[in-house]
Amino acid sequence: MKVQPRTLRQCACWLLLSLSLSACFVRPYRFDLIQGNDISTESISLIHAGMSEEEVRYILGTPMLHDVFHTNRWDYVYLEKPNEGEEIRRHLAIYFENGYVEKITQDPLPEVA
Questions:
Q1: In 3-state terms, what secondary structure has residue 6?
Q2: Domains and CATH numbers, the chain
Q3: Cβ within 8 Å of residue 47, ≥6 positions away
Q4: Residue 84, pLDDT score
Q5: Could you give the CA distance from residue 21 to residue 92 in angstroms, rounded to a whole number?
Q6: Which of residues 4 and 62 earns the better pLDDT score?
Q7: Which is it for strands 73-81 and 88-97: parallel, antiparallel or unpaired?
Q8: pTM of this prediction?
């Protein structure tokens, strides 16, 4: 039995079309992205008014953001973008007066189970 050239060409076209369309449905792998300072409730609870800049740096590490317009404020930012699910953002700002902690502001942190 001889295969018709037209039938062979049609099969090749359908195969090529189906392979090219199937590439549109494949989602590429996206890795988990974690950036910034890991801010935990435990480490924030250790920070209080009157602490020196060195003590804060020892507990939380060096802040990721340095604002040239607000040199008395340190911003600690954390961003986590998992492959699947919602992204997590956290922000902590520590204000200093004469080298000592004056006040702390932060986003509400989620409770860790």
A1: helix
A2: 29-106 (3.30.1450)
A3: 56, 59, 60, 94, 101, 104
A4: 83
A5: 47
A6: 62
A7: antiparallel
A8: 0.67
